[in-house]
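Standup notes
- HV: blocked on the assembly model, inputs below
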Amino acid sequence: MTRHLPALLFLVPLLAAVSLPVLCLKHRALSRPIALTAMFMMVGLSLWNLSNVSQYGEVRYAFSGWAPPLGIEWVADGLASIILVTLSLLGLSVMAFAGSMAPKNLEGRIVHFYTLILLLIAALTGIVFAGDLFNLFVFLEVAAISSYALVGMAGGRALMAAFRYLILGTLGASLYLLGVSYFYAATGTLNMADLADKLPHLLTSKVVVGGLLFMFIGLGIKMALVPFHAWLPDAYTHAPDSVSPILAALVTKVALLGWVRIIFWVLGAKAVVQNIPVLVLVDVLGMLAAVIGAVLALAQRDIKRIFAYGGISHIGIILIGISQGNQTGFVGGVFYLINDAVMQASLFFIAGVAAGQYGVRTVDDIGRIAKQTPWLTASLIAVAMGMIGLPPTGGFFGKWYIILGALEAHNYLAVGAVLLSTLLTLAYFVKIFERVFRQASMPSSVERIETPLPIKLSLGATSMAVLILGLWSDPLVSALIRLALPPGF
Amino acid sequence: MSDILIALFHRPNFLTFVIIFLWGFYIMVTRYNLVKKLVGMYLVQTSVIFFLVSISAKKGATVPILLSMTDPVEVAAYSNPLPHVLTLTAIVVGVATLGVALALCSAIYRSYGSLDEEEILKKLE
C-alpha cells in the first residue's frame, strides 16, 4: 500500500472527477459531498506520503513495473511531498469555498465545476510527481485544459479571456513539447534522472541549448513570467469567483515547480549554457518580474487585477530566491512559494466575497463593505501583512531567507529588487486600505448579507495559515532544508 | 551563410517544420477571426508533432515486433516505438485542446453573434 502512495494520490481526485458526472446525473446535490470526501482523502494521503518520505527517503514509483529509463517514473521526494500537502490543503479549502460560492454564478453547472476542479487537482498532482519531461507535458496540458474550461464557465466576458488564455497557453505547451523533442533528439531519453547523467557533456550542443530555450519560454508562458504574462490578469479577473482562487494559488506555482525541476534536477545547479550560468538568467528574469509585476499592480483599479499582478510579481520573488545558488536562497524561495500559494488563495477569496456577495469589484467601492464585514477586513489585513512581508507572517520569513541567500551570494542587485518590490507592494496595499478606512467612516449604503459558514471557514483557515506559516517558520524551514534540497546542494 | 543553407537543404524535414510552425504562428497573430486563429494554433501544434515524427524516422527499419523469441535481436532493424507513442499522446492532447477551443468559440458566437475579435471587443466596451 505505502509503495503505491504516489499513484493513489493521483487516482483519488481523478476517479472522483471521472465518476462525478455519472453519479450525479440525477442528484446534483451529491456532487459536493463526493468532491469534499475525495479532497479529505487526498489531504490524508498526502500527509501520510510526507511522513513516509521524511522517514524513509524518496519514493520512486515506476508505472506497471517498467524500469525507469524506459518506463514512466514518478518521483515522490521531499520537495514534491511538501508541495503536495500544500496543494491538497489549499484544494480542500478552495473546494469548501467554491461550494458555497458556485451556486450563485454557476447555476446548473455545478457538477461540471466539481469535475473540472478535481481534474485540475489530479493534473497538478501529476506535474508535481512527474519524473519524466514528457509526462510533465501531458499533465501540464491536462491542467491547462481544465483551467481554460473553468475560466470560461461563467460565460460573458470570461469567454474571451479563456480564449486568449487558451491560445497563449497552447503556444507555450507547443514550445515546451518542441524543447522536449530537442532533448530527446540529443540524448534519446526523457527521464529526468537519466537526462541529468547525460546532459552535462552536451551543454555545448546547439540542440540542447535550443531545447532548453524553448522549454523555458514554454513554461514561462504557463507560469506568467513577465514578458509572457499577458493572459493572466484577464483570465483571473473574469473567471468565476469560485475558480480564481485555485488558479491563482496553484496553477502558476506548479508550472514554476517545472522550472525548478529542470534547472536543479536535470541541468544541475551549476550548469553554464553558452557562457551564461542558468541561475544568473533566472535571477535576472526574476528581478524583472518582481519589479514590473508590482509596478503594474499599482496601476490597476480592479481589485482582482491588483491581486493578479501582485501574483505575477511574487513569481519573480520566488525565482530570485531559488536562483541564488545557495541553500538559504533555495529554501527561502520554496518557502515563499508555499506562502504565496496560501496568500493568493486568500486574496482571491476576499475578492470573490467582495464581488460575489456585495458586487464590489474596484478599489473605489471597497470601503463600502468594510463596516458590514469586519471579518473580511481583518483577513485582508492579515494577508496584506503577508504580501508586504511584515514580521509575524510567513511572507516576511520567506523574503528574509531570500534576502539572506542573496547577501550570501553577494548579489546586492537581487536584494534591491526584493526590497523595491516590497515597497511597491506596500504602496498598492496602502492604496486599498486608504479607501477601506476612509469610506468605512461614512454611512454605508450596502445591506448586510449573511455569508455562509464554509466561506468564512476557508477564508479564516487561509488567513490563519499566513500567520501560522510565519510563527512556525523555523521548524518548517529546517524541514525544507532536510527534505527539499536538490542533489548537489 | 551558404553553409547554413546547404545544411538546411540536406534536412528538408527541419525546413518544413520551420515553415509550418511560422505559418501557423503568423496566422495566429494576424487574423482577427477566432476560428482562423485556431487553425493557426493547430498548425503550430501539428508542426511540432511533425518534427517529432520526422526526427524518429529510420531508413530500412521495420515495425518493432519481435517475430522470434530465440534469434538475437538486431536493434538497427527496428524503428524506435517511443517517439511514435509520444506523438500519439501529443495528438490526443492537441485534439482535446482544440475541442475545448471550439466549444469556447461556439459559446462566444452564441453570446456575441460574431467570431470577429474586433467586433467582439467593440461589444465588450
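- HV (later): unblocked. Residues 42 and 98 of chain B are 7 Å apart (CA to CA). The domain at 2-59+74-124 of chain B is CATH 1.10.287.3510 (Helix Hairpins).
- Next: hand off to the docking folks.
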